[in-house]
Amino acid sequence: MTNGNENLIIKLFKQSSHYFIGNIILMIAGFVSMPILTRILTKSQYGILNLVSITLFILLAVAKFGLQHSAVRFFDEFKNGKRKEDISVFYTTLFWGCLILSTVVGAVFWILGQFLYHPFPSERPGILLLLVAGMVITGSMIIRFINFLRVEQRTKSVNLLKIIDRYVALALSLAFVYIFSKTIEIFFSGKLLVEFLVIVTLSYLFFKQHKIKLKGFSLPFFKECIWYGFPLVGFELAGFFMIYSDRYLIQYFLGSEAVGVYSVGSNLCYYIKDILYFPMWYAISPLYMELYSNKGIEETREFISKNFNYLLLISIPMIIGFSVLGKQIITILASSKYESAAVVIPYILTGTLAWSFYPLYASGLFIYKQTKKLPLLVFICGGLNIILNIILIPRLDLLGAALATFISYIILTGLVMAVSFKYLKIHIEFPKIFKYVFACVPMSIIIYFIGFDIGILSVLIKTITGIITYFFVLLCIDKNIRLKVIKLIIR
Q1: SS3 labels along 354-416
Q2: Three-state SS for 482?
Q3: SS3 171
Q4: No. of H helices and E strands in the chain?
Q5: CA angle 128, 131, 135 (to 5 degrees)
Q6: Rounded to a whole number, what is the distance in angstroms from the first to the last CA of the chain?
Q7: Residues near 2 by beta carbon (within 8 Å), at least 6 away in sequence
Q8: Alpha carbon 419 to chain centroid distance?
Q9: How many Å apart are CA 459 and CA 461, to the nearest integer?
Q10: Closest of 77, 398, 96 to residue 265, by C-alpha
Q11: Are the C-beta atoms of 374 and 235 separated by less than 8 Å?
C-alpha cells in the first residue's frame, strides 16, 4: 500500500471516529427514548408512532431528490476551481432547490392525505398529516445543512448539529407529552418546533458567511444535480420499502400492537447497525471519491477491499452476540411486555448489516456514475419483500416478517455485487470469513452459559467476555492478526 493510501486510511479512521463518537451520543438518545416511550405509550400508540416516523422517512427520501449525493459528487469540482462559478453557487443552488422541492412534497402529501386517504390509524389524523408535512420541510433543510458540513469534511460540526437537533427535539417532545397530553400529536409538535428553530439559526449563519445568497441560483447546475442524484431517490425509496413495508403489512394483518412489538426488535437492529456502520459510511464515500480522483482505480480498489474485510471482522461476531443476548436486551430497554420481539433479531440484523456494506461493494456504480442501475435492483427486491411478507406474516406472524426481510436483503446484496463488480471488483477474503465464524462458536457458548442475570450489568459482562473470547481465538488461529498485534505492541 502506498503512503498516500495509508494516509487516507488514517484520515478515514480519524473522520469515522468523529462520526462514531457522535453516533454513540445520538444512539444514547434512542436508547433513552425507547424505554420511556414504550412505557408511557400503549403498544398501539407506539406502533402508530413508528408508522408516522416511517412515513416521514419515505417522504424525506422523495423531498431530498438525491441532492445529498450530488453535493458529495460535485463539491470538489467547485472547491478545486474546475468550474467557472463561485462556490456560493453550489450552496445557494442546493439550499433554495431543497426548500422548493421539500415544500412541494409536503404540500402534496397533506393534500392527498387530507382529501383522499388517512394513512394513520389515529383519532386526529388531520393534525398528524399537517405535522408530518411540516417535518418534511424542516427535516429536508436540516439534512441539507448537514450535507454541506459533510462535504466540507467538518465532522465535528456535523456531530454537533445532529446532537443538538436530536437531544433538544427529544427533550422538548417528551416535555410536551408530560405537560400537555400523552399523545402522538403532542410528541411530534415538539420535534417540529425545534427543527424550525434550528433551520432559522443555520440559515442566518450561512447567509452571514455569504455561502448562501438571495441571488446566485443556477438552474443548469440544479438540473445537473437532479440528473445525477434523482436515480438514487428510487434507490433510497426502494430501500425504505425494503426496511419498512413490513410494518404496514403487519398493521394490516396483525394490528397496531403487533407493529409496536415488531418495531422494538427491528429498531434495536437498526440502532446497532447505525452505531457501528453509519460513521464509516458517512466518511468513506467522500474519501474514496477523492482517492479515485487523485490516485486512480487500483489504489481505490485496495482501499475499499481492506475496509470491507475489516468490517466483516466486526460484523460476524456482532450478529451472533446480539442474537444470543437479544431477549435480555429488549427486556431491559422496553420491558418484558416486548420480549417476544427478540425472535426477529437474528434475521433482521443479518440482513440489514449485509446491506449496510453497499457503499463499499457498490462503489463501482458510484465511481463510474452508474447509479441508475441501483433503483431497479432495490425495487425488484423490495417487491419480493412485500410478496414474502404477504405470504409469511399470516402463517408465521412476526417471524414471517423477519424472514422476509432477511431473504430479500441477502438476494439484494448478491445482485448489487454482481452488477457493481463489473465496474470495480473488490477482493473478499473468504478464508478469513470462515475463521471469524469459527471464533464465534466458543464466544456464543460462553455468553449463553454465563448464568447470572442482574440487568444491564449482566449484559455488559457478557459482552466484554464475548469480545475477549472472540479475539483470543482469532489470535490463536490467524497468523496475520498475530503479526499485526505484535507490530502494534512493538510500536
Answers
A1: HHHCHHHHCHHHHHCCCCCHHHHHHHHHHHHHHHHHHHHHHHHCHHHHHHHHHHHHHHHHHHH
A2: helix
A3: helix
A4: 19, 0
A5: 135
A6: 19
A7: 295, 299
A8: 23
A9: 6
A10: 398
A11: yes
Residue, of 123 and 218, whose pLDDT is higher: 218
What are the cell numbers at 434?
470462515
Residue with cell 459510511: 281
Task: Tell me which residue has cell 473470547.
Answer: 469
> Locate cell 487523485: which residue?
294
Say if CB 73 and CB 111 are below 8 A apart.
Answer: no
- 418-459, pLDDT tens digit by residue? 999 999 999 988 888 999 999 999 999 999 888 666 678 888
Which CA distances in Å does 220 have to 90, 113, 141, 187, 227? 11, 33, 21, 41, 10
Residue-wise pLDDT tens digits, 67-96 = 877 887 777 777 777 777 888 888 899 999
Q: Which tops the pLDDT comparison, 90 or 159?
A: 90
What is the dihedral sign for C-alpha 247, 250, 252, 258?
Answer: negative
What CA–CA distance (Å, rounded) separates 139 from 132? 10
CA–CA dist 413, 384 (Å, integer): 13
Whole-number Å distance between alpha carbons of 469 and 449: 13
Least Cα distance to 53 among 350, 255, 339, 267 occurs for 267
Q: How far is CA 48 from CA 45, 119, 153, 184, in A?
A: 5, 10, 37, 8
Euclidean distance between CA atoms 244 and 407, whole angstroms: 15
Query: Residue 11 has what pLDDT?
Result: 57
Q: How far apart are CA 382 and CA 244, in angstroms?
A: 10
Grid coordinates of 141: 433543510
List C-alpha distances in Å: 211 to 65, 80, 95, 215, 286.
21, 16, 10, 11, 21
* pLDDT tens by residue, 164-199: 888 888 889 989 988 888 888 888 999 999 999 999
The predicted structure's pLDDT at residue 100 = 92
What are the residues whose beta carbons fall under 8 Å from the beta carbon of 227, sequence distance 6 or more?
Answer: none
Rounded to an integer, what distance in angstroms lies between the CA atom of residue 472 and that of residue 63? Answer: 48
The better pLDDT of the pair 319, 291 is held by: 319
Picking from 244, 232, 270, 233, the residue whose alpha carbon sits closest to that of residue 119 is: 244
Q: 289 is written with which cell numbers?
A: 471519491
CA diameter of the chain: 70
Q: Check if the beta carbon of residue 364 is closer than 8 Å to that of residue 384.
A: no
pLDDT at 1 over 50: no
